[in-house]
Amino acid sequence: MNSFHFNNVSSAEIRKIAEEAMGETTLLYLKDTEVIWGYRAEERMRQVMETTGAAMVYADHYVVKNEKTEKAPVIDYQLGSLRDDFDFGAVVMLRTSALKEAVSRMKANYHYAGFYDLRLKLAGKYEFTHINEYLYTEQEHDLRLSGQKQFDYVDPRNRERQIEMEKACTEHLKVIGAYLPPRFKTVNFDQQAFEVEASVVIPVKNRVKTISDAINSVLCQETDFPFNVIVVDNHSTDGTTDLIEKLASDKRVIHVVPDRTDLGIGGCWNMAIDHPQCGKFAIQLDSDDLYSDQYTLRKMVYAFYEQQCAMVVGTYRMTDFDLNTLPPGIIDHKEWTPENGRNNALRINGLGAPRAFFTPVIRQIGFPNTSYGEDYAVGLAVSRHYQIGRVYDVVYLCRRWSGNSDAALDAFQLNANNLYKDRIRTWEVEARRTIDYYGY
Hints:
Elements: E1 2-5, H1 11-20, E2 25-29, E3 35-37, H2 41-52, E4 56-65, E5 68-72, E6 91-95, H3 96-104, H4 114-123, E7 128-139, H5 146-149, H6 159-176, E8 198-204, H7 211-219, E9 227-233, H8 240-247, E10 253-256, H9 265-273, E11 281-284, E12 290-291, H10 296-307, E13 311-319, E14 325-331, H11 341-344, E15 355-358, H12 359-365, H13 374-385, E16 388-399, H14 411-432
Parallel strand pairs: 1-2, 4-7, 8-9, 8-11, 9-10, 13-16
Antiparallel strand pairs: 2-6, 3-7, 4-5, 4-6, 11-15, 12-16, 13-14, 13-15
Helix pairs in contact: 1-3, 1-4, 3-4, 4-6, 7-8, 13-14
């Protein structure tokens, strides 16, 4: 068996490893960390590889954080596991023959995306096996909370890396038949009459500290069109309901309390977009957040007409509760391009905020009734057929505080979230493979 440690993930390094690999299996150490193998763990990985015929095996493990050992399970790989940050753990075992064959198909010379390119080549032809056994222990050096790590991919310092990852992913989508060219359905904004031009949608449950600020940031908007705000109050019990009722003295505030008690955030969105007073465009505002100034609605609505799109995504700034900027600052998602955004969307973990939708289109698609990933799912579904427009002005303030639902997730909840988004991508890839885009 071969064993290779590498500190960079260039294509040249991957080719060198493949050239020097001689045994039946090859161990790749993916992280710059000490790995302590469990009893007969390497033998177990080889055994599973032989049993399953997989080209790659990887395993659950333990991780040491602040001198405390914790379980670090990983998740199954699937068709939609297109994230370049998919967590295999610190080490993977490859079948050397598959490694060499996949490397023979690597034509690009990436500085950052070498391993990503390799595993996409492998995944397009071979099986990966996740071993649900804790086979080794690794030392964790990045001790940031999950809410801090999740924005690394949009850090401007990582832009060059992201461009390479996009190229590798786009090539893979072409190979598997899931690539979509920049050819879109047209949008008819006059197909239906609406009482108001725009509705801001705020799903909320138990946000007594933030809901007034959110609603007031809508009511202060200056527009040349009528708008309202639909607040779907999902049975709050902390005083949120009373605050909304007071603000509903302004007739633009529509307070909806669902009869159902089984709604997630997506279900609350469906209640809002199906409401008879929903406007032509439905625009997102989370109950924790704020619009950056009084011109947000105007900019978002104008973008629909200017860019002829069925969905618009804005730009936001990360702040603390007092609106001081937090790293990485402005999240503009410039990796989205009109030419390739719909394909790159399958690689990244989100599309940005605020998100706005042409109501007739989003009514047809609908939101999954979940409280995680529902926005990503509909964004992918919209982009399958329609152009998504962008506003690069900062129009939204995303406030991070201890009450945020994703501020500090443990490994098991992170896995559940990642598994669901990978599943969404799998369904989307399968759907895109069936599209006759020339029929647009």
